[in-house]
Design brief:
Order of helices and strands: HEEEEEHEEEEHEEE
Largest sheet: 12 strands, antiparallel
Number of helices: 3
């Protein structure tokens, strides 16, 4: 599946928006790699689409203005690992997007920034939950697969980052994605290798 260029650039705008990136101008743009892929990152999340553009000059382009940005984009190739994940779960994009927006609303009763976690239980049921002093809510994803017996079965993350990623997959016409967890390393949400979202987990201890 070829991801529409304008769709990727639209969602890249969200990634490059933080004021904290003003001190690193190259991260305000989308890297147009020589292999035809598109990459955008804010150091906490990364989106990559393969075979999505025809440039061969390694340009860095602001996703909203189209402005060319001078500089060297960081090497992100090693962030997307080929290692076997500790556990995986299949996610319906449309269903999960609606559910996670509801979880966000529940969590914001306590705090504007909502922290959530995905858990794979002993019965292999994968859930995403928000636990605050006043609300405990969860969404049952479905049956996951534990690939390593010593896996970290919980991954804590910024819920908005996952919502943003799923919104990109939905706009790209992707019905289902796979969640790959690697313990304390960044987790990956992807549709084959055509479109990938990598998100840094939050350490709570």
């Amino acid at each position: 599946m070829i991801v529409p260029y304008l769709t990727f650039m639209k969602h890249a705008e969200v990634v490059v928006k933080p004021k904290s990136l003003d001190s690193r101008p190259v991260l305000k743009g989308v890297y147009h790699a020589e292999d035809g892929s598109l990459v955008v990152t804010d150091s906490y999340r990364l989106y990559k689409a393969t075979n999505a553009q025809d440039r061969k000059d390694g340009a860095i382009i602001h996703p909203k203005t189209g402005e060319l940005i001078d500089g060297n984009y960081p090497d992100t190739s090693r962030l997307i690992t080929d290692n076997e994940p500790q556990f995986t779960a299949s996610i319906s994009v449309d269903e999960a997007l609606k559910a996670l927006k509801a979880l966000k609303a529940c969590g914001q009763v306590h705090d504007k920034k909502v922290i959530a976690k995905i858990t794979l239980n002993d019965d292999r049921k994968a859930t995403i939950s928000v636990d605050t002093p006043i609300i405990d809510a969860s969404y049952y994803i479905g049956e996951g697969e534990l690939l390593k017996s010593d896996a970290d079965r919980e991954v804590v993350f910024n819920l908005q980052y996952v919502i943003d990623a799923l919104a990109m997959f939905k706009d790209a016409g992707v019905p289902n994605v796979t969640f790959h967890a690697y313990g304390k390393s960044p987790f990956i949400i992807k549709q084959n290798d055509d479109l990938i979202a990598l998100i840094l987990p939050i350490r709570i201890y």
